[in-house]
Prior knowledge:
pyroglutamyl-peptidase activity (chains A, B, C, D), alpha/beta, homotetramer, cytoplasm (chains A, B, C, D), Pyrrolidone-carboxylate peptidase (chains A, B, C, D), globular, 9 strands, PGP-I_bact-type (chains A, B, C, D)
Amino acid sequence: xxxxxxxxxxxxxxxxxxxxxxxxxxxxxxxxxxxxxxxxxxxxxxxxxxxxxxxxxxxxxxxxxxxxxxxxxxxxxxxxxxxxxxxxxxxxxxxxxxxxxxxxxxxxxxxxxxxxxxxxxxxxxxxxxxxxxxxxxxxxxxxxxxxxxxxxxxxxxxxxxxxxxxxxxxxxxxxxxxxxxxxxxxxxxxxxxxxxxxxxxxxxxxxxxxxxxxx
Amino acid sequence: xxxxxxxxxxxxxxxxxxxxxxxxxxxxxxxxxxxxxxxxxxxxxxxxxxxxxxxxxxxxxxxxxxxxxxxxxxxxxxxxxxxxxxxxxxxxxxxxxxxxxxxxxxxxxxxxxxxxxxxxxxxxxxxxxxxxxxxxxxxxxxxxxxxxxxxxxxxxxxxxxxxxxxxxxxxxxxxxxxxxxxxxxxxxxxxxxxxxxxxxxxxxxxxxxxxxxxx
Amino acid sequence: xxxxxxxxxxxxxxxxxxxxxxxxxxxxxxxxxxxxxxxxxxxxxxxxxxxxxxxxxxxxxxxxxxxxxxxxxxxxxxxxxxxxxxxxxxxxxxxxxxxxxxxxxxxxxxxxxxxxxxxxxxxxxxxxxxxxxxxxxxxxxxxxxxxxxxxxxxxxxxxxxxxxxxxxxxxxxxxxxxxxxxxxxxxxxxxxxxxxxxxxxxxxxxxxxxxxxxx
Amino acid sequence: xxxxxxxxxxxxxxxxxxxxxxxxxxxxxxxxxxxxxxxxxxxxxxxxxxxxxxxxxxxxxxxxxxxxxxxxxxxxxxxxxxxxxxxxxxxxxxxxxxxxxxxxxxxxxxxxxxxxxxxxxxxxxxxxxxxxxxxxxxxxxxxxxxxxxxxxxxxxxxxxxxxxxxxxxxxxxxxxxxxxxxxxxxxxxxxxxxxxxxxxxxxxxxxxxxxxxxx
Lengths: 215, 215, 215, 215
């Protein structure tokens, strides 16, 4: 029996909800194809978020880990291509820490690429009418931190567990109180996530289609 | 018994669906509070759209008319403030006509203001967590044409029927195939429209809150 | 001898400069073709701005008046098509007044269209490689207020003076301190304004080209 | 005597000019502080661009290399933080090649960080009123390819030559013919580049200020 671990973040930056957790917690106790889904909420804190993630990996020994986070201002579900080895926080995390230009993991490689089939995941969501895209940057805040820590961990584990990171837009109720931001309904995000999980579970070799950015 | 007339447009500009009609047709035969809702699809054609609208007004004698259309690229439900007396088409309508700087109605006033309580409608949607805004321009294409024709007609009718125009974002399945566009789920639009109708039916005096644009 | 009156605004909303005045004051004592240019700074105050404008019109009896203002967030020089008879201020003006849904001129028409050849002006700027566009809304703040007051005045004057309004982007030094805003160099704006003035002085009949917006 | 090598690209994607070359070629034979500036145009071709760059490095033995490119759609001068080891072309390069998910350099590390003081460069430009920003992604096209190849080369050279990449917005004459794009005057870009070069020549330790992105 395969296990899929989904993580979402607690709210941060003054928000009272975080779409990543609102979506991920719908999946508790679900099965997708033949896999059991387990979910885990991560604190929006440098360091501690990676520890909680690693504890969940130890407990569940998942064969697929998808971490999710909020990318306020984006209008599509973004499947991240790469995590870089830098923490550079424009705003404080939930422990009031704001690291600047510090490595996620000292001595780690400059970056890790997602090991899930990002093109196939995006393509499958688009085929179902769900706005999705490959993203070339997960930022330098706690989302990138968790993605880097996840891929570092999986690279040093035996087995062939795959890992990736998905950024979600604001929920409509968040965008309603902002001056200018696109949003996406929770139902659309949930449908997209289900397709992304199924694709990551079943597609071995990623699609050979463009998903890059000119700049 | 009050009657509410909702109109939506047929697809245009190469699209196969139009969110305004997808949303409006859900309301066929519904009642909202004590009002009966009737719906009507308008052709995306200068002139003919206004004729079909006027026929529907003659048939149903509504006390509230809300016309809806697509504003591809916007991220919120937009309640329009004003319609101007000009047709200026960047793209051809569905009859391949492309008027430039022609009046909607010769000899008509330069503009008409919506007679529904636009601030209250936006405020009620925001209060329900639905991204909405007052818009200062309905463009110069068939949407503005229909809004102008509607308000001109109501201004010359006996009775106190109110009229307004609401622009909707793309649906997710439309945005999925575009390079860069925000979208909104049909369910979110439907919930917003219901609130807008209830508000237009019940709020006599519009709210005294800012809804303008600096530029 | 023809006289061209250019107006720009004092800074507002916390800014220390206003690109409209920075550009307009470069034109003091210039001649363009056979016309003398005079300039005038307007206060960013509802009511008083229109009074100062009217005093300048009385003094100079111009045959062309172009009022300029800042449209923070736009990336092109915008030639406005229409002014509407409403003041609706999201922020306070420089006298701390914030009118909501009040007419610019009680009993005035719902809107006035610019009487300068807006399409020809935009087309000439584009031909010179300067980003420009027709805009369908001048907002509902002091810019729209001044444009409406100008066109109302000219409509009630003998003679054939033409009037219009041009919105400018932020200057680079303004955008540098903002989170996210496009800008335009003062030199580019000045070059655009000169072309706009020349066009407004010489083109009688506006071009029959599309300049509208679908929404 | 120090030598600074600046590179710009030939036009691509149907454009007839490229702002990176328009700006860089102004610097031919200039001195900045005590450094000689040399310039080099790179073809917009995967592989060949890196070869031409490496030939220029061999010829001039620069102590600072800044490669510049166009980032159509951005509104600020972007100093890139990181180059990743992937070519993924949404459009064909000038040799009609369109690699997908291929490494820039087989066996190379996943990414390289710029070795110029990116925060100090951005900060100095902002202080001079020039819109600038740190960017977390140079894309996956020829710009990222050249940045990666440059940093790979410098990492394997003796000496302490520094390298970085700067993305420029469209020029006004490019934006004028596009539907919707911000632009920047060549003069503003040139002034920014001079400040960036001076900073990279004189600031040893980068500033400890935030320049990251939440997502």
